[in-house]
Amino acid sequence: MRTTLTWALALAVAGCGGKGSILDELTVSAGQTQGPTYGPSGEPDDSGDEPTTSATTGGEPTTGGPSGTNPIDVLFVIDNTGSMADEQALLAKNIAALVNTERDLRIGVTTTDAGNPRCPSAQTTPENGAMATLSCIERVAKSEFSFNMEDFSYACTDVCDRGALGLVPTPTSLEPEAEVRPWLERTGGVTNLADEGLSLVQALQCALPRGVNGCGFESQLESMRLALLRTMDAHQPEYGFLRAEADLVVVILTDELDCSFNPAFDSIFKDNKLFWENPDDPNATSAVCFNAGVKCQGSGPQYDACVATNYNIEGEPDVADEEAVLWPVSRYADLLAEIQASKTGGARVRLLAIAGVPPGFETGDANLVFEEDPDPAENDLFGIGPGCVLVDPNSPTSRRRPGRRCACSRSAPASGRSSSIRSANTTTPRSSPPSPSPESSACPHASTTFRSPRKSSRRRRSARPTACSPS
Questions:
Q1: How far is CA 433 from CA 153, 356, 436, 437, in A?
Q2: Does the pLDDT of residue 324 top 90, yes or no?
Q3: CA torsion sign, 452 to 455 to 459 to 463?
Q4: Would you say 449 and 465 are in contact if contact means Cβ atoms under 8 Å apart?
Q5: Which of 444, 258, 420 has its CA nearest to residue 356?
């Protein structure tokens, strides 16, 4: 049975064919999101259910407004943990494919770091949804591209050569008095960049790489929620970012499971080892994020299906939302539905993840695979094996690790709460050519995966559903 929101799983932004902006493609089509839909295990859904529209969320229908004329508000939630350097650089290199539109744009950037008991705030400085336009060159100077004594500054310097991004004050509909905002924008062809010779794409190439020193227990969904709530709070600098007449596109770049947790139950990362893969480990690993939020069917090691599930502190599944140790998916679906209900003029809301899926998944020819890692140490770290590992041993610029090839997919929508940020597994590409062609395999992939706090593995793990698209 479908939820009231449509879950879209795949977004590739690196020359995967087609013309024009991917943002245009995502927001112009009315009604059903294009592409196959998928059930709990990632198999094509042939249930015959009709696609949902905004009417199912209690809001006004939004399929009758102008097509492709609304401005677009974009929120990037960037995974800034120790294994994300290549993915950040890849997104920045290919960002023109996403934002090459003539429509007015507002673009905010935050990270997946919302804090965790295993991540001292003095070390990871969680953003908690705050937006920032700091150039990655400035972040390099602050050692934010260093992890485990290794320098990943190439993720910035390969794509950006500018220091501070000066911004000019701009008004919003909620705050008519012009102020310097924590986002980038372009209205009527004019940006809020102080340097008139700097394009929006160039600025994004400097703003999107966010470093690799963030908390390894990523909170993709909670960070998104916090960022969106800040835009509604008159006391926050993000206030006024959202426009009622604008399409909203949330893009999550990540390689690991969502670990958005209820602080009332933070003992699951401390001394309550019920969800730990190995109770003998001295510290919790990212396996907690899988075991405390996903229920698998079948005996394993390869499971029939894995779906996002609420567990209580005693380990009982399928409990009420208020008892869930990880925040329930409804917390985020409901917020997006509320935003959709507030939209005017046919504006729509889309939520997508850039990560990895198996070859053929984007066309409905391959299923997501949920299988334990044959390496016990790896399984202890993540609770499940990788769903996709990308390799290009012939590329002189490749930083990929050995593994099987991942698919390059643009937008494969799925239905239900299963495959994705809390219940799928994947790995993203390790390099990208400077000028990707339509045939390029260097596309970031939408998927579901997540990593251990120690970041000792470069492979991607399962994720619970992200990518809501009330249409």
A1: 18, 18, 6, 9
A2: yes
A3: positive
A4: no
A5: 444
pLDDT beyond 50 at 441: no
d(C-alpha 218, C-alpha 312), whole Å: 20
Q: Is the pLDDT of residue 333 over 80?
A: yes
Of 172, 169, 145, the residue nearest 244 (C-alpha): 172
Q: CA–CA separation, 419 vs 407, rounded Å?
A: 16
* Paired sense of beta strands 72-78 and 6-8, if any: unpaired
- Per the model's pLDDT, the better-predicted residue between 61 and 214 turns out to be 214
* Whole-number pLDDT of residue 391: 56
Task: Please tell me the distance from the alpha carbon of residue 52 to that of residue 254, in angstroms, as a whole number.
Answer: 27
Tokens at residue 117, please? 């008991």
Distance of CA 106 to the CA centre of its chain: 18
**Residue 222 CA: distances (Å) to CA of 113, 168, 328:** 9, 30, 10
Spatial neighbors of 112 by CB under 8 A, at least 6 apart, are: 77, 78, 79, 80, 81, 214, 215, 218, 219, 220, 223, 252, 254
Residue 328 half-sphere exposure toward CB, CA atoms < 13 A: 17
The pTM assigned to this predicted structure is 0.79
Rounded Cα distance, 373 and 376, in Å: 7
> Per-residue pLDDT for 376 more than 80?
yes
**CA 204, 207, 210: angle at the middle one, nearest 5?**
135
Burial of 189 (0-12, 13-18, 19+ CB in 10 A): exposed
Please say if the pLDDT value at position 465 is more than 60. no
Q: How many whole angstroms separate alpha carbon 308 and alpha carbon 192?
A: 41
> How much is the pLDDT for 99?
87
Beta bridge partner(s), residue 371: 302
Residues 6+ apart with CB under 8 A from 267: 313
Question: What is the tens place of the pLDDT at every residue in 385-432?
Answer: 887 765 544 443 333 322 223 333 333 222 222 334 554 333 332 222
User: Please, what is the end-to-end C-alpha distance for the chain in angstroms?
Assistant: 17
Q: Is the dihedral of CA 377, 382, 384, 389 positive or negative?
A: negative
Contact by Cβ (8 Å): 429, 393 = no
pLDDT tens string 431-440:
222 232 222 2
Query: Is 81 in contact with 451 (CB distance < 8 Å)?
Result: yes
φ/ψ bin of 245: left (φ > 0), alpha (ψ from -120 to 50), beta (otherwise): alpha
Structure tokens that stand for 293 in this block? 């939020």
Q: Is the model's pLDDT at 273 over the cut of 70? A: yes
Average pLDDT over residues 45-55: 38
Tens digits of residue pLDDT in 414-426: 222 233 455 433 3
168/198 Cα distance (integer angstroms)? 13
